[in-house]
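ugh finaly. both done.
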Amino acid sequence: MNIKRALIIHSLLLLAACSAENGDDLDQFMREAGKNLHGRIEPLPEVKPYVPLEYNADNSLANPFKIRKTQSTGSSSLQPNLNRPKEALETFPLESLKFVGAIFKAKLKYALIKAPDNSIQQAKVGNYIGQNFGIITEITESGITIKEVVQDELSGDWVERSASVNLQE
């Protein structure tokens, strides 16, 4: 019973110490910390009114709503066949396609191309690939070589350029 009485007296002393009115250093700091602070909020910036630009057809500005076509000089006889049906690998940009392997059977060579939709497509020499009218010209163990037909930005003529897709491991 003495232990019980000693615990009760000890608990009462601890509670009495915590309820002191004069406080400690932390209470005093909290009371004094906000005395010298004066808040200042910057004013909002002035909103400038929107001034629309009026399009005038007689002006030298190009019509922003009209599709611009390049003018061909007509010196090039090279043009892609726009009337043929598109192949599956022509729906993806060439940069998004990955060459993942090749299959060689007798005289036939097939390239295994991984498309962005994670499908594996077989392609052979002569198949079209990419969005620039690319045609596969060579298949090796390390990659494929492609001949693309693109429109020159300056002259508007169709020109050939080479591209390749190398093995991705």
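ok and the 2nd:
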Amino acid sequence: MRAIDHPYFDAPPLALAHRGGACDTAGLARENTLAAFEAAAAAGYRYLETDVHLTADGVLIAFHDDELDRVTDGRGRIAQLSWDQVSRARIDGTEPVPTLRELLRALPQARVNIDLKADGTPEATLWALRELRATDRVCIGSFSSARLRRFRRLARRDGVATSAGPLGVAALRLLPAAVSRWLHTPGLAYQVPVWHRLLGMRIEVVTPGFVRAAHAIGRQVHVWTINDAAQMRRLLDLGVDGIVTDRLDLLAQVLADRGHPLDTRR
């Protein structure tokens, strides 16, 4: 299957709101809040990016860190806290931590990119997607190859889109093009930074050859996390299919300047 044949993916360029748009123009953090996700949707962002963790009593939350400390007024490791404790924390002192189910219910038209951040999240995420009939509007990724393999095994009959794992990215980037064009990866997108450490080496991932190789096997390339307008333009010129950003205003303007304005109708 090519990426474009799956209902999650649109024709490029895709604009993805990182953690719902992790900062506004004043740099104020509102990451992974329903307020941020709803504001991104109102600004025309159909694609949202988030992460998932499990509380000690099994509640699946949309949250990046494994601790509350950095962005909330709460403290402690999420895996060691009950949902009751997590639900009392406030992001930036004002916004509650949402569950994944709350996010999917609040924005039923949104497509959500989900990063599996903790053990147990493959099972819990799939249960939530099945319950809400949202299997066709998410893409699942993870830095953990084991979690990604686990999710794919569990969801093999559900048709859920996934992104390539770390080994798939390394193979596409490091093997010769004559070999990489015949690679089979179940991931329909390569979601990568411009630079990354692969197999112990710091290398430039998003090169013309990498983009061509991904397109040759029907995959999209989404690049994170890009908050500079000049770099956005360079990557789009390179042919990438999507950009993940904290700066929703900048990416919206870059796309509008190139004839791809976001649709703010809801």
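summary for the 2nd one i guess: The mean pLDDT is 92.
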